[in-house]
Amino acid sequence: MKLLRIGISESDLLQKANQGDEEAFTLLYRRFQGPIYRYALQMSGSAELAEEVTQDVFMAVIKGETRFDPGVGTLGGYLVGIARNHLLRSKERNAKWVSIDEEEDQANYYDTLISSQDALSDLTNAQAIGLLQKGILGLPEHYREVVILCDLEELSYAEAAAALGCAVGTIRSRLHRAHAMLVKRLRYPEQETAVSPKLKPSRCLV
Amino acid sequence: MNCQEFESIIRDLARDSDRSSGLWDSAGIHLEGCTQCSARLADETALESGLRQLASKARDIGAPVELEARLLIAFRRERDFRQAIRFSGWRLFGWRWALAGGILVLLTLALAWHRSPKWGLVPASPGTQHAKAVPVVPADRPEGAGGVGQMKEPARKTLLANSRVGVELRRSPPRQVTPVRKVGKTIEKQPTLKDLQAETAYFEPEVVTEFIPFMAVGEIFPEEQQQLVRVKLPRSALEAFGLPVNRERVIDPIQADMLIGEDGLVRAIRFVH
User: Fold this and answer.
1) What predicted TM-score, i.e. pTM, was given to this entire model?
2) Separation of first and last alpha carbons in chain B
3) Which residues of A touch B63 (CB under 8 A)?
4) Is this prediction's ipTM beyond 0.85?
5) Domains of chain A (ranges plus CATH)?
6) Among B168, B177, B79, CA closest to A25
7) Which of B50, B61, B71 sits opposite A123 (nearest CB)?
């Protein structure tokens, strides 16, 4: 298989894949499966759901259901947008509400727990990184997705705005607020988790 | 720069490690006098560092390999399905065209068949077609005026059979008419006078009288080869044969067919309108 289509544009790649070019589809999949899978995984915390969402996104490509406009944004952002829609639909279909207390029992890919009092001062520590992952997963959904897209997947504000269907200013403000929340959670983790154990705060993993 | 303005650029400052850039100039002055913002920047920088590590760590995470294999199978199925649909679409398209073409050809043939002269009854010049004489008796023909109707049966038959009559058939008969005889074909069974009248009623576009024999000339020989000649006569000639004459058109000529025997004498005459 010739994978030397370096210069080919994303829209051409998508068009060729839609026309039945297997090589183009393979290239497209290998280029975008990672960001889509990671986005779905970090948004849902479920590897199974992330795989399902990734499959749904590429099935949409296979069936030619995509309406990508290169003038609006990048293909990566567009596909992430499809993944987001699938996640939202999945959330509506079978809402998986998981108590924060139960998260420790889930060994998705958050297998590192924190013991340090101040993780922020030592974020090179693997445990601190684990706490950061937990902190991201604990963010409200609309803050979480901008952190995932802009910080972890390193999309530009414009690309993230296109993927999420909102204004660039909204992305900026959400990201700023999300960072403030993460700093607070990492600096004072005991405050975040021991607020009210009886209330059993819960959040949506999907 | 105040703390609010500093907060708006704190992420850019945390990501920008190059402290010689212009962004740091104004922010540096603010940081010297604001410990709160300095601590905030330190936290943000640590967070950015952690996020970058997390991003690099997560970069290796991808969908399971089996997913690619499953998707490729689905891709091939979908491609084959589309090709099959396209092929069947073309086949259906081709069949439609073939059917439409067939219908068109049939319609054309039907139209041509309907418009063309049928059964070989093409317009012919008088005297070239062999057909039976048409003994049409006019309704106003006075009884006892003489003619074929009064001739003896064998002689009448002979006259009818041997006459060369120029019959112009200018239109085709309706399809329902079945008694058809092709030109020049020998008819084994001699039709009766009634048959002839019924048959020729369709084909005879001209109104003719019956043949009126010239009895003064002599006998009509059955074996004699006779010839039919069309002539124009003054309308008053009708009177000589006991036929009514329109006085207003008495000067107009009238056509007549003269049956001439082998000796050149007229055997019979009929008038044509």
Assistant:
1) 0.52
2) 123
3) 33-34, 36-37, 50-51, 54
4) no
5) 1-95 (1.10.1740.10), 100-206 (1.10.10.10)
6) B79
7) B50
